[in-house]
Amino acid sequence: MTLQIENLTVYYRTLRGDVRALEDTTFQVADHEIMGLAGESGCGKTTLGHSLIILKPPMKYIKGHVALDEQELPIHDMKRMNPFRFKEISLIPQYAMNAMNPTRKIGKMTAELLGSRGVNFDAIRTELMRRLDLVNLPDSVLDMYPIELSGGMKQRMVMVLSTLLNPSLLIADEITSALDVSTQKAVAEMLVEFRNREFVNSMIVVTHDMSILYQIADSIMIMYAGQLAEKASTDVIIHSPRHPYTKLLISSLPEVGVRYTETKLQGIPGKTPLLLDPPVGCRFRDRCPISFEKCMEVPPFMEVEQDHYVACWREF
Amino acid sequence: MKKQRNKNEFLYFALRNVKLLIGFSVILLFLITGLVGPLLAGNEPFAYVNPLGPQPPSAEYWFGTTFFGQDVFSQFAHGLQATFLVGILGGGIGTIIGILIGFVAGYRGGIVDEILNVFTNIVLVIPTLAVLLIIAAYFEVRSIFSESLFIGITAWPWAARAIRAQTFSLRTRDFVDLARMSGMKPLKIIFQEIAPNMMSYLVMTFILQFGGAILNAATLDFIGLGPTNAISLGLMMQHAVNWGALQLGHWWWFIPPGLAITAIVGALYTMNVGLDEVFNPKLRET
Amino acid sequence: MLKLDNVSKVYRIGTFGGKELHAVSNVSFDVQDGEVISLIGESGSGKSTIGKMILRLVSLSSGKIELDGVNISVAKGRALKEYYRYVQGVFQDPFSSYNPIFKADRVFDSIREEFYPQLDNQAWYHRVGSSLHAVGLNPEHVLNKFPHQLSGGQLQRFLIARALLLDIKFLVADEIISMLDASTRIDVLNLLAELKERGLSILFITHDLSLAYYISERAVILYKGCIAEMGVTEKVYENPMHPYTRMLMASVPRLDRKWEDVNIELKGQSSEVAKGCVYYDRCPLAAKDQECVKRRPPLLEVTPDHLVACWKL
Predict the structure, then answer these.
(1) What is the dihedral of CA A53, A59, A62, A66, to 10 degrees?
(2) Of A146, A151, C139, C147, which one's alpha carbon is 20 to 30 angstroms from that of B204?
(3) What is the second-level CATH architecture of the domain B9-283?
(4) Could you tell me the residue ranges of all domains in chain C?
(5) Are the beta carbons of C98 and B177 separated by less than 8 Å?
(6) Which residues on neighbouring strands pair with residue A223, listed in sequence order?
């Protein structure tokens, strides 16, 4: 087991009270697993991703344990997390491309970043070159300023940087969303390549785009309104999901070859609940076509089949 | 509802912002002094009330009397009025010109923007004080109004540039495009769609112009080019220095106006920083 | 009905405007009554610029746009306002489309002030009500609210309702569902389809191939401001002929099949090709010293209703 998360609960502190963005999540990510984390905006997927590495205000740790390679992560302590960040667990943020300091040459920035982690730049230089080569970036990027790189190039640069120390876990937050289809494909395939070459042990790929996950992920976990809904292998989630939300979500996705005149797709009626004051029990209850009295209680996230977890009372 | 909450949120942070509160209290204190003072001290700041000539502060003459036996407090209170008037008029004129030019340049863009930009830059690099000196010296009889006018028409370029930049970024927003597609005319779009989004900005511009006008007026007054028919804080200082208050140790004559100008301008800038923090969530101290 | 004739947009950039950026080059196509046509392209393809030119928010550098035979690309004042009575647009970001300090209804109010000052309150509310119903919104739920109190999907419907208040014939829908959540976006798309059934023509601007397929009869594929391929949607999708279209079709992530191992050249954006084909530097088919370098390929009809701009056909 690379990553084990137990009862992790994280809120956002706001003027009007706590936004309950992540409630009681328990799941595992296995060695070499690329887990896709999907859901709509506000479902808590980004909160989950970020809380594993930088849990800082307005995020507020409530409870739960996180263990990486059998070692407890002090995620609630920004300082004690420092030795883990970048070395053991690394993040590619959504706007990674803009995260680079525009006044520093990329090579210099890399050296500084490594220095701050006590790693000698020269010692790792050959490996860096090798990896740049792997993602089709010329060595000369190190002498360039971030502005001289295209969006796709920056994204690849950040990918190389964030995995340079072979972290055990990589969290990629919506890294393909702002890219063109062609670049998107290349970046997504690189993620797989990085895993195959064991630059990273396992990965959590956070995205709202299920079709990208279908291409690259081993498993997919679906979240809804701060709760886990379902986790299973990619094919199972796409082709035989069991949670009503997953079912409705998958069936609402248009694909090439589907036209409204022949197959009219339907969205999910209703709205996501406000997490400032979420409904009790299953948070999908109000929009769910098969909800019943039992749904007033929070459904547990249970394994209904080998490696298939569902949080729905109808499935137990 | 949102407006309500916005207002509440604004008040919430405004009432907790020390800088804003301190600045505002100082301004309020001087404003009240300027308004109420003349009622207490009488309406003739130049009247020779004390036959003994220069006297330090006493129960009868709170701020003492001048070399000629005039009541310093009375002059001070009237001077405050003049100072606020210059601030409001001069700052107001500067702000209005700045707003008009900034809005038009920012919204129209293109050639109009370039022409206005050149014009703004020209006014910007003209040494303001020198021009004010020449204008002021040209007019034999000068009033507070003419002084404010001169100050206003030389002080707008900074405001214009800042407002132009803001307008520029707002005009590319989709709701402005939508307003254009609703057939609204440019002026209507500027004042009904763009300006309301910049209210905080406009208020802050006015405060800065207000402070700048007071400083400019004090400078003019001090070098003897102030109003010829009124009293102001700057003029008080000029008189004090002319009649040897420094050498004779008549500190009560020049310290109050000097301190008041410093305090008012300082308070305005502090208020500005405070307002910035209130309006801009990123600067709010948590 | 709406016709683009050789429309181009050139921006002058660099110090003293010495360089030219061809955002849109010689684009021609037309939209029939009650037709949905998709304008598909990646970032920098000029698709939004075309939408904005149709909406007259961006001026044309050359060419013309006609609505029912009338050249509107130079319309001003009253004529332009009349044009807006028939042609309207909805943009990508629902939140940026509303002035954040006012209630959302304000977008209706400005329509009333400018176009229907003579209507009394009752007639107006009736009109607003039926517009809202037409887009599937309940007036009681959405009127008198501030933009942040409504969801992205509601806001986009609200904007469509605003357009329906006018005598609208043509709607430019610029990425209008790309910021909406998966579970609500399809309903907005279905709404567009419904409006189309009622005779509205729609220009559906998108980067998402599957959305375009779902809704449009015809598709236009743009690359760097030029039309690469266009025609009946099925033909373009099932038999893509331009190498760029083929690359797109191969790299779009799908739910019914996994990516094939097609190697995509990941060259950075190169300098603009002055004369030749805009896809030249990424094209696997292009060869040096050929027409590809020298001249821009014309858009030619390969089969009926299927046009491709490629020398290598």
Answers:
(1) -10
(2) C147
(3) Orthogonal Bundle (1.10)
(4) 2-253+262-308
(5) no
(6) A228
Report chain B residues whose CB lies below 8 A from the CB of C91.
174, 177-178
CB contact under 8 A, C57 and B179: no
* Cβ neighbours of A271 (radius 10 Å): 15
The CATH number of the structural domain formed by C2-253+262-308 is 3.40.50.300
Q: For chain A, where are the alpha helices, taking DSSP H only?
A: 45-51, 78-81, 106-116, 121-134, 151-162, 181-196, 210-216, 234-239, 244-251
Question: Can you tell me the ipTM of this complex?
Answer: 0.87
pLDDT of residue B177: 93
Interface test with B, best of C49, C56, C96, C99 (most B CBs within 10 A): C99
pLDDT tens, per residue, chain C with 313 residues: 899 999 999 988 766 667 788 899 999 999 999 999 999 998 889 999 999 999 999 999 999 999 999 999 988 889 999 999 999 999 999 889 998 888 899 999 999 999 999 999 999 999 999 999 999 899 988 898 888 888 888 999 999 999 999 999 999 999 998 888 888 889 999 999 999 998 999 999 999 999 999 999 999 999 999 999 999 999 999 999 999 999 899 888 888 888 876 555 555 444 555 678 888 888 888 777 678 888 889 999 999 999 999 988 7
Indicate whether this model's pTM tops 0.80: yes
Closest-CA distance, A52 to chain C, in angstroms, reads 25
- Cα Dmax for chain A: 64
Residue with tokens 């399809």: C186
Three-state secondary structure readout of chain B: CHHHHHHHHHHHHHCCCHHHHHHHHHHHHHHHHHHHHHHHHCCCCCCECCCCCCECCCCCCCCCECCCCEEHHHHHHHHHHHHHHHHHHHHHHHHHHHHHHHHHHHHHCHHHHHHHHHHHHHHHHCCHHHHHHHHHHHCCCCCHHHHHHHHHHHHCHHHHHHHHHHHHHHHCCHHHHHHHHCCCCHHHHHHHHHHHHHHHHHHHHHHHHHHHHHHHHHHHHHCCCCCCCCCCHHHHHHHHHHCCHHHHCCHHHHHHHHHHHHHHHHHHHHHHHHHHHHHCHHHCCC
For chain B, the structural domain boundaries read 9-283
